[in-house]
Specification:
Distance between the termini: 39 Å
Number of helices: 17
Shape: globular
Helix content: 25-40%
Largest sheet: 7 strands, mixed
Strand content: 15-25%
Length: about 625
Amino acid sequence: MVWSCDGQLASAVTADYVGSGPLLFNALQALLAAQCALAPTMFQEPAASDITLIANKTYDFIIVGAGTAGAVVANRLSEEPTWSVLLLEAGGNPTLGTEIPSLYINNYGTNEDWNYRTEPQKNACLNYKDRKCYWPRGKVLGGTSSINGMFYIRGNKQDYDDWSTSSADWNYESALKYFKKSENLHLLNDKDSIDMKYHGIGGYLNVEHDGDVHPLEQVLINANEEVGSQFIKDFNGPTQIGVGRAFTAIKNGQRQSTSNAFLKPIKDRPNLLVLTNVYVDKINFENKTAKGVQVVTKNGNRVVFAARKEVILSAGTINSPVILLKSGIGLRSDVNINDKTASDLAVGENLQDHIYAPIFYKMPSFDNSNSLDSIFKMYYQYITERKGALGNLSPHKVISFINTTDSKSMTPDIQNHFILAYPNQSNFVDIFGKHSLSQQFYNSFNELNKDNLIIMIFVTLLRPKSRGVIELSDGKGNAKIKANYLYHDDDMNTIVRGMKHAIKFNNTKAFKNAGLKLHWIKIDECLPYEEDSDEFLKCIASHLTGTLYHAVGTNKMGTKEDPSAVVDEQLKVKFTSNLRVIDASIMPNIIRGNTMAPVIMIAEKGADFIKKDWLK
């Protein structure tokens, strides 16, 4: 396993246990340090003097961002031995905390997180401090794939067919080819067959699926079936509507980030150079042709790197548009690249995200899984065997997709995530403490969670009609995130219908037999409304808004004639040369599902576009 051994070692894993007494804390820290001492870092950060030497060279391709997409692009382009590839990452190596699957939330707020917050919201996140929604984004090799929930969900067939309004290049059949190319499906203890027409074996990304259903997961599946959902074995197969257990990007108890999957196996390729802890400030142009990038190093020095063939932006939905704007491309840029058309591109527009409203169910429980003694034993089992509760996502794998207006539709408008919190969950993973909700809500949840197991249903809006924007906030070029959640009335109406569906579980035999009961956490602003009324549900959705951190769309892909498109269907930035964007920001419309797998597909396809252009 590849973990970095820096001073941040215990930050993501042991921070919650400082108050538990020095003996337990010191023993845990020593155990983790001993493991880390055996694990070399993936890429060494170069000294400042070395960067100057590196910068004197010219590279065929410069990739900005070693995240979910950039790591894949770097792998595929460096397959061509005659090409030199420079991969630049603002963060560092993965840490021990990023690699343990069930602790992914503990990475939020660390050095591996950009720690973004939106501008104050008018219609959402009203219970957050300053009404600013929290947006964790990965600042580490692997990007957000190094801190996310690892669900491998591709979305709906119709999503990709909708992208192909004028070209078959982006339809579902074409996307499926690239999904299969990157995938190595691994079935664990699963007696039921999976239709391999939809899956690949031998790709870089290990995708696991097991048949060992946790008892609480079975309760959730039974309840969903009672309210009309069909059991689905594989959400990435022929149909998406229904309830089932998600596939996950995990291998042998370790997260399969794109760093682990696509960079680690090729770290010794002589034509690939990876630099960590360097921030790309802007793109250098000669007229309209990208010639390289300007980089700010960890110690504040500015260095220029030159590209012979292309510059590829894979910095993500926030930073890719920010870099374009700072380079003179886009509606809000105050920099001129001597081309009015390029400066007028709709960079930063079309921002979309998956937001949710939570529904809480409680069940009396004195389970001691989150006692400090049990936690220590879990860590010890994981460190020594790579097994146990820390090495997988159960019992949180159950998800469902529904259409709230047409039960026969094959395209969902709501996705439900079912997250379990054992008693005293904050001892283990402090879910709400990371988000800076109000102290009233935080105290109320922890009080409820003392002697109760909590099931949280995240009722998620899949195709929002509201659109946000990324802008530059100041002279330094920092990002201003205007999410504009729930600006469109249809978004709120869809979430309310989804919440009503989630409330139906209260009357199922599965929940009653398990002792699960619906519970509303007190929100003062919602008290005037009758519980379960539309007004009450709208109030809950507005105050307790959450996000699955699936922001996309800020460098929209479209035809050359589309005035709202930033990149064409080959992912080239319009009205420029030798510049592409390959990441989640190019999605015209957000897909109906989690975004990691689609971004990897986009990267695979984008790399092929480049190969076809330059290997003619």
